[in-house]
Each structure stands twice: as C-alpha cells, then as structure tokens.
Amino acid sequence: MQIGADRMCMPSPSVHQFMAAVKQTALANSRWIPPPGKGSLYIRPLLMGTGPVLGVAPAPEYTFLVYASPVGNYFKEGTAPLNLYVEDEFHRATRGGAGGVKSITNYAPVFKALSRAKSRGFSEVLYLDSVSKRNIEEASASNVFIVKGNILSTPPANGTILEGITRKSIMDIARDLDFQVEERCIPVEELIDADEVFCTGTAAGVAPVGSITYKGNRIEYTISAQLVSKKLHSRLMAIQRGDIEDTRGWVVEIN
Q: Which listed residue, of 90, 192, 224, 230, carries a Cα 20 to 30 Å from 244's Cα?
C-alpha cells in the first residue's frame, strides 16, 4: 500500500496502523470465517480520496478502511484447470504507467478484454507486453508461472506487473524445494514447450492452467496430482495452517 500510495500521490498509513486495522477487522468478522477447505475470509485494505476537489489533483483528504467477506474459489471453475486466452489487441499496462502498483488502474483496463474472453468460454486473459507484443506479462488479476523441468520462470517485476505476495511466497517455497527460479522475459512461444503453467494471486491462490489459446491455436497441458503447482500450493497451505514450521515469519497470530 505504501508503494502504491506514493505512486498515486496519496498519504499512507504506517505499518503499525495497517496491521492493527487488519487484525481488528479479522477479529470483528471471525464468525464469518468459513470451515477449513470451504473457503476463506477475504480481507481487503482500501485507501481512497474522499476530500472535496473537482480539479485534476490529489485529494485534500483520504480515507483508509479495511473490509472483509467470506469467499469461495475466485474462479467459477472452482479448482478445475483454467483456460486462458492470450490477448494481443488490448494491453493491461505500459512502461511508465501504474501497472506495478495495486490500484483501480490495474483493473479497469482489463474489463473489455476479460468480458470478451469469458463470452467465448475462457476463464481468464493472459496479456502481452505493450512494446514488443511478444512477451507474456500477467493475467487480469494474477501473476503467471511456467514450469520446464526443474525451472520455474515468471515475468520480471519491471513496473508493468504486480509483485504479488502469493507470487513471492511461491518463489520462496520453490527455492526451498530446490527448484531453480527465474525472473525473466518469457516469449509467448515458450508456452508451447512448457511442462506446466499456473497462476498465483491473493484471491486466485495457486491455480493450474489446463489450456492456453493464442492466435487460434490451443495449447493443452497435462493435469495430474504430481503437478509442481499442486506441490507448491500444498506447502503454502500447510504453512498457513501451522502444519509446517513457518521459518520466515509469514504467519501472524491474531488475538
């Protein structure tokens, strides 16, 4: 939030204020936490301008709030593999823009492409970089990884994609499990030879991809219990549940 607020010329709550608000919201809504395996309590911090101003300028006053809601799986397919459509007409972000910060500017530009893709039966849209229109970047609301052998590759956080916390967590866990992790430009053609593709996000979790369609050509991936994404997701869930020791201080007790 501090990074995004700075980019948008907004004041930001301190880390202490932020954590206190999230903890209070979680406690106040504890009765809405779904049973294990049935969903989760989605907590969303929000910072918005609320001061009176008509001109094109930062607001004179801002409101910081945190709300929560019980949710199921982010995708309507549930835990079924996703079917992605590679968008080569519309772009989610451009260099020098705000694609790398968590703001409404991340979501409004994808509505057109996402609506069109869903009307054609696809789960999500995978966007290309706006300069070469050749390298994959991310989906509408999640980061993307490709797997080839023992190597996990994901596009670099160079200002046009979000550095999602689930993305970072999966990269750390993958290294713990002796996978080689690369942040690099990934040409769209590499999707053809990938062993596996999956998406990560706060709401999306870790979602395997069953197929990707690009310029009318459909690439299908084998789905099995041995998927790397399933192994990484299981490890992340075990840390969150306390089944595996949290060595990085990710888990915060709320009382």
A: 224
